Amino acid sequence: MSMARVLGMVLLIAGVVLIIIGVVESRSLANSLSSTFRGTLTQHTLFYVIGGIASAVVGLVLTFGALGRSRS
What we know:
Blueprint: H1 3-26, H2 29-37, H3 43-64
């Protein structure tokens, strides 16, 4: 198994964990109040969700994409 594929799997798992943390945090009291008064989520929640999506996409590309294929 190539190093790129291992790194891709780690990034994919980390991305999924960050997305889950962001979704759980989006249901917190602070985010409920922020959504009520400002109409948006807090910055921490957005960082978790956006960072998780970016990490998961890069992980998918490295694991299953052209960069993750071993050339033999």
